[in-house]
Amino acid sequence: MGLKYTSTRGDKKQYSASSAIICGLADDGGLFVPDHIPSLDVALSSLVGKGYKDIAYEVLKLFLDDYTEDELKDCINKAYDSKFDTDEFAPLVKKDGQYFLELFHGPTIAFKDMALSILPHLLTCALVKNHIDEKVVIMTATSGDTGKAALAAFANVKDTKIIVYYPKGGVSPIQERQMVTQIGDNTKVVGVTGNFDDCQTGVKKMFNDGALKDELASKGYRFSSANSINIGRLIPQVVYYVYSYVKMMEFGEIEEGSPLNFTVPTGNFGNILAAYYAKHMGVPIGKLVCASNINNVLYDFFETGTYDRNRDFILTSSPSMDILISSNLERLIYHSVGDDPQKNAALMKELTQTGKYTVDESARKVMDDFVGIYATEDQVFDTIRRYSKAGYVIDTHTAVAAYANLEYRKKDDTVSVVVSTASPYKFTANVLKAIDERFVSSDDFEMADKLCSISGVPIPGAISSLKDAKILHDTVCEVEEMKTTLKDWLGLA
Ligand SMILES: *Cc1c(COP(=O)(O)O)cnc(C)c1O
Question: DSSP for 204-245?
Answer without folding.
Answer: HHHHT-HHHHHHHHHTTEEEE--STTSHHHHHHHHHHHHHHH
